[in-house]
Amino acid sequence: MSELLTAERIEEIGSLGSESPDPAALVAELVGAVDEGRVADPDDTGYALLVAADILEQAGDLADALALATRAIAEQPDEDAYARSVRGGLLLRLGRSGEGMRELTELRPLLETNPDATYLIDELAESGHAETALEWLTGALDAILERTRTQQHESEDAQDEAAAMIYGLAQRRHDLREELGLPHDEYDNLADRLRAASNHALDALDDGPATLLYWPQAEYDALLARWPALADSYPATWDEHRAQIERALTEASGLGGADLGVAAGSVEGLAAFAGNEPIDEETLDEYADSLDDTGVTAWPPGRNDACWCGSGAKYKKCCLPRSRG
What pLDDT score was predicted for residue 301? Predict the structure, then answer.
């Protein structure tokens, strides 16, 4: 029987993408595993199809990419918003503007409730509809700000979530307007004020350093093999570890944190740092502090840049959409 297709292998394929000498073989591996029921985690079925669609899109085969995105929606209809946004963007790039806009417009309300839904803006901007993207961002900001003014008795968690969404939407809008060469307006000024305020916010937080200790996959496996007692301090799998890091950084950013980053640890480096001292959570924190000035990767990367986790895949295709939960 052929091997199961793991999440790690899907990401490895995604990092190769159309730059592989044989992207068609990568697509065949992904689709074949889905067809034969060989995806290790059934929840990754849609993910595998979307990675295959992305490879085809990069190679210029938009029609086949659209077919795979449509299939991803059918395979996992309960979690289809991201796949539908991909399909909407592909329809726009294929010149089927009416269908594409209908698909994306149905998802537009997510911008007011889901902090991850800026993938809709990416699809619009990358498909030549930047003005519409700006209109949607402005509308979402209007709605959330009005909601915060009129709903004074929301829970503290709801208020924090609204603040994080205002920050993220304002920054995305600001960046897009800069790309288009547009002059500052009221919301751009708000984005600047929020960003300036965030430069000092972490000093008031007691939740930890601006730089988080992250273990690349090989180092993660070696860490738990060398010091099994650390299993109580870390998730069961490397995939859960990097998702945990992404969530912590997202939460810190929503609370106003700036200059965030990840410092990649190494087992040999930790052993040299600790000497004969026991490896416990306090030692890990001190080791992370020692890495602050070296080997730090700024977070977040650009959506189209390589993901901070080292997979080689684009951030928007890797930890950004897969870390929530």
Answer: 86
